[in-house]
Fold each of these.
Amino acid sequence: MTKATIDDVAELAGVSMKTVSRVVNQEPNVRAATREKVEAAIKTLSYRPNQSARNLASLHAHLIALIYDDPSAYDIPSSGYVIRMQQGTLRACRKADYELLIHPCNYRNKDLDTEIGALIEQARPAGIVLAAPLSNMSKIVRSIEATGTPFVRLSPGAQRSKQLAISTNDREVSAEMTRYLASLGHQRIAFIAGHKSHKAVANRLLGYQDGLEQSGLRFSEDLVVQGDNSFGSGLEGAHKLLERKTPPTAIFAANDDMAVATIRVADSLGIKVPSQLSVAGFDDIALARQVFPSLTTIRQPLSKMSERAAESLIKGKNNGSSDTEVEIVPATLMIRESTGPTPD
Amino acid sequence: MTKATIDDVAELAGVSMKTVSRVVNQEPNVRAATREKVEAAIKTLSYRPNQSARNLASLHAHLIALIYDDPSAYDIPSSGYVIRMQQGTLRACRKADYELLIHPCNYRNKDLDTEIGALIEQARPAGIVLAAPLSNMSKIVRSIEATGTPFVRLSPGAQRSKQLAISTNDREVSAEMTRYLASLGHQRIAFIAGHKSHKAVANRLLGYQDGLEQSGLRFSEDLVVQGDNSFGSGLEGAHKLLERKTPPTAIFAANDDMAVATIRVADSLGIKVPSQLSVAGFDDIALARQVFPSLTTIRQPLSKMSERAAESLIKGKNNGSSDTEVEIVPATLMIRESTGPTPD
DNA sequence: GTGAAAGCGCTAACAC
DNA sequence: GTGTTAGCGCTTTCAC
């Protein structure tokens, strides 16, 4: 059985190639009766459009590129982050019969702009979902802009581009977590900050400050240690905090890897979580559920965010209207076992 | 700047389109001097072949499809598994300028064969990397075979197909782990077996027996408890083993989930790991590094396996020689904190 | 609303 | 070794 082409369908339905094309692409200007005839023919021949042919004939391929920094290229964990972004993007792609091309890369690579330029030229994606921290890097953003390919940035720190950006309410939800900790009676709530260049992560620190203030607690530099999002930096930061004469009774880490590291340090120091120390994280990685005690954290709607990004890229084609704004998908607190009332 | 096409390059180099094509595709029958001229022209014009055009003109797209069961679709953990496969496949793809299309799916889906058939027809991949447990499902294998698309199976239990399969040396490396435990002085080394229907996992039990023998230790049914790969069955098995009058001094579990459960049980029983009990697992899941004490385990060379798979798919094109065999990529022991010398 | 013609930029088959 | 000639199967004009 040789594959059916658009011509076969056109012939069977007694219409022209173009009409079939219209039906397949859900374009207007087809009478309902004609449409049905064509659809019937498509069914009998079990016709599937050849993507390669489509791609060549149109200005770009029916394909969305998801570009992200791949931590596992130089560090190990946080694959859940990647998986969830892929899942969301895939959902949007499948709905519209787009393919997904993934392009993990190293944000430290000097030639990243060239690399991405080449990707765009070769694969000609209909749109690009650009994940943080790449979405903050002006060199990258500019190099994509230069190609004219529509793109959506995920969690960009600053909003310089005219393109749509999708963010979560890092700052507000971090304030919420801080207020929650304060509501448990904690007065000395410490914060392990994340990588400075990651703007969204920086917002978590601001949210922590907001939360303190909203709870009537004073912010103090002493309660903040700098990490870099890695498990190792979490170990280090937690040690610094917990070995003080008056250690904090709660530690809020800017991501889960560092929060889990904090639990580990507490354990090694004989500090009981949550009865002697409350620990909260951010991201809700798979591990958060698996550690003991399970981690109170914030669930980033990564999958939803990337889905919305891909959706808008795909829709944008039909609309022609570029949204030019920031869309917020709210995060939610996941209260688990690692947080509890202040020790007496 | 409008994109350079193959014609532009041909003109600048003073050769025909086809010669440029030969150079780009590294085909033979081009004189060195000609090749250089063409390469120079490519450089000056910074020409990049348009994938869509290539794909249409050739029988299939320059693209490898990675098809795997997506546990996170209905269960939570093991995203590391997916990421590592993606990484390996990507490495091979980038070397040869192929793109990677990912197709996570649910192995329980009734229409999976149709779904994959549609994927192949639409995207026309040059080859397919089929991950376990899909690689064991004859319905899937047959539906791919029917399309004539070359594919490579990862860790298939049985080898029915004539296509290449890539596996790891479960049995040999399990023997190695057992010998390692014996070399630490352990005499009573217990084994928590995995799900019986999973062939690769069953091989681990055989390897354990081999290892005992090679170390001059006697195998005894008493030292083996049956698990089913789940954390829960690990808890159960560990309890059985550790509550004996003469408990083992080392426990080797057929996978990491059961090994982590064993550590948990030891902890709850006040048995110190590794000073009183050594624990080893298999798989090197992310959690292995994150539990305390971190787990000695066996790292499946997933990334290498999928890389080899994609490589052979890409090469196979040029060779025309289908390998028709099973290739073994050896696994490696990851010695961490959960194993140590026998207690006195 | 529908159709005819003209490519998209490359590779394949075969000539030379 | 190299060039020529046809398409690959669609989408895009632009007629009607």
Note: Residues 79-96 of chain A form the longest helix (18 residues).
Amino acid sequence: MPNKKRPAALQARMKEVALRAKVSAMSVSRALRSPDQVSSETLRRVQKAVRELGYVPNRLAGGLKAPSRTQLAAAIVPSLQNSLFAATLQGLTDALRKRGINLMLGDSGYSREAEESLIAAFLAHRPCGLVLHDTSHTPGVRRLVRNAGIPVVETGNLVNRPLDLLVSYSNFAAARAMTDYLVGRSYRRIAFVGQIASLNERARERQRGYRAALTAAGLPLEEALTIETPGSFENGAKAIVQLMGVRPKVEAVFFAGDVLAIGAMLECNRRGWEVPKQVAIAGFDDWEISRRFAIPITTLDIPRYQIGERAAALMLRRLDGERGKLPPIDVGFRIIERAST
Amino acid sequence: MPNKKRPAALQARMKEVALRAKVSAMSVSRALRSPDQVSSETLRRVQKAVRELGYVPNRLAGGLKAPSRTQLAAAIVPSLQNSLFAATLQGLTDALRKRGINLMLGDSGYSREAEESLIAAFLAHRPCGLVLHDTSHTPGVRRLVRNAGIPVVETGNLVNRPLDLLVSYSNFAAARAMTDYLVGRSYRRIAFVGQIASLNERARERQRGYRAALTAAGLPLEEALTIETPGSFENGAKAIVQLMGVRPKVEAVFFAGDVLAIGAMLECNRRGWEVPKQVAIAGFDDWEISRRFAIPITTLDIPRYQIGERAAALMLRRLDGERGKLPPIDVGFRIIERAST
DNA sequence: TCCCGTACTGTTATCGATAACAGTAGTTGG
DNA sequence: CCAACTACTGTTATCGATAACAGTACGGGA
């Protein structure tokens, strides 16, 4: 039995690095985590031994003793397949990796219950921080994150009472601003197509923003001009077809999501409906494709990548020992005016 | 000092659960992992105590003692923002979550060196499995995964000598099949637009497939008919413009990526070029939008979600104790013929 | 010369769960 | 009636890194 001591894994332990470098394990630990605390000679020998053995530290052991430094963060998005969340994740991982922190990822499928069970599963790995895109949670979630004692960043909406930290934009203000813009362009009969409000706080807020703008402009709210539908190209197409059938004519449609707006634009192209002459189309979230149509789509730019970056930054400030409530960050939004309105 | 013992974290330990349930910690451990090994009475009391304390197990401790059961897997994709990889990830997480395994995620940015350092960082958390989309690796990667002694699944291409497990489709065969299809449709001057071959094995294989098909059909390979460019709508647009300038006329263009094909289609719409009359367009990877154009795009369907699912399944078989080489899985592909060709 | 601070290194106990082992009842079969 | 066996439970040592503490050596100032 040549490999009696380690039958399966061949990974070197810190002790073996220490042996080879002719120092104690503690010096190896220090050399790796705070190189300025050891002599240059020790550092050199440790680095050499690490290289030669291909040593990969064991963060399970480290995190067990020093729970605040597992070098692991967790994030939950509503869906992995939505490129908007992907941009935020990219910002997150890029910023965290600079500090040697890796990311654990899950999707809630837009369900609060799934979010709770996922958080519980994640916390079992003792991450040193948690990022949640959703801002509406079960009571269990509040208890879990309170007990975990780690920084939590929410990113989906600028809410009033965040769990802890908050980096986002206001869905309400954004939708209101876009509707205001359409009103300013002299459209009067403005329809709204968004995701199902009862399932999603962001969808709710956007719809609220739309209504607030109409009311402020003294325009009537018409039941038939609001459509709720899951986001997809197909549903955007269906919505525009439905709205084109309404009389008196709808002048502009605000799609609270670019998938929907793009689906609608493709349908208009197919049917030969002229945009914006017959109907104006506005989107939400500047997908690259929106600007590449023959009639590019007016839309809202949300700095999704930046949300991830700043969420990471906020989390790191806490990990660096900053106590107390850090104020929410509003990353804002920007209307991008194009030919479709 | 009321919280002398646990200053920051409020998380209950297994010992406390044991105390409350009036059993030993070992019984708690057993009740949670293999409920059939304890009496129903013990099980009941443990579950009650767990619920009341909101106990979240510490997988760092568990994984330290039993390294093969960290309940953590790691995956690396070339880019988080590409919806193709997202579909595979979704398949992965869905399948792994059923077994209580969570996923750690990173992106290599299409760089082999980045992949290596990411793998090293991930292995520090002692995942029980690793999924890599890339199939071309640095020597360091080979050493790392060998030493880690965990199952590794590659998913990006059907290669000959995989590191370990393999679930994919053949980029070569797919590109060849699509080119064969175009030849079968009587197109003779067929151009190819793909990602930069020197940077990416998949791009290389697709280009090779294209060439093999032309050669087999007795058609000449023309330098001017192959364009290499990073994937984006804009580059697809540029490519089609460039190719439309070539004389004698290009009859069909095979875009080895739907982003490129869609960018080209949008450009054709904008310029009023008729597809497929003036030029036929074929894509690769069935993006939903491809089927929604006025002239829907012929493309290749790759079962991306299934790749993730089956990668998870393969990994789990290893974790369930299955030794030896498991054969590679070819998930295949399917040509979807639409109006653009 | 002695004291103390600085810079570095080593030793010990510990984080929390679990494998390995060691019981203890109760039961079955010869 | 007792050995052997099943079903369950508890005890101890351990996984690998690190915090806390305890040196050691050297140098500068009084």
Note: Residues 91 and 306 of chain A are 6 Å apart (CA to CA).
